[in-house]
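Troubleshooting: if your tokenizer reports a length mismatch, compare your output against this known-good record of 248 residues.
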Amino acid sequence: MKLSAAARRDPMHAARIAKQYERKILRLFRDYRRLALESLDVARENEAVRELEPTPIRISWLVDELDLLAREKILAPGEVIVTEGVRTGYHQGVLYAERALARIGISSQLGRGPADQQVLDVLQARNLSALKGITAETNKSIIRSLTEGINNGEGVVKLRKRLMAEVEGIGYNRARLMAHTETMYASNEGAKLRYSQHGVTQVEWLTAGHDNTCADCAALNGQVFDIDKAPPIPRHPMCRCTLLPVIE
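Known-good structure output:
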């Protein structure tokens, strides 16, 4: 037996959670950008970029400074934000699953247990790894762009624009993708665990039903899979698909 049409209209409600996660992560990158710009100005005042001539000392100083800022302003406070974001997304998925199960006559009385914590630990490590990757790529791109600008003889105004463009183009954009995609990943992991714990062996793919649903996800909509053989979900960055329990 599949869920009724009315039950299908009940979304996971993870978008609000993802947006909160996004705002907190973006705040870290905005603080980092501000301080990175200040560091560039200080470096120039200290003649670390005297006459804007490319020297190993200048590049080395910027690399070290950006690395320090990344650790102190993104990664350290980011760990707390990641922990909160993962837990909130995961618990939303658990709640979604419990409501879906209740609609087909299965009452969930499990509460939180060791299995939940194991999944949460994996999700937290996954998110921290993603945040570290975004931060490292942002730093590398900044140094690469600044080096190019200095070799072209650009002044500090253009160098500042280069730095801002790299933080916004890589840091901001990938942080947004991370927040939304990882929230849905955590939510679906919570739902799948609850389904399995109640003996559900099959799930049905459900899209969000929006006009901009991608062709790949639309093709999966309504298909039933063994719970351990369902395609990876989210299917792609910003994917909003979910899984419904199917009882024969």
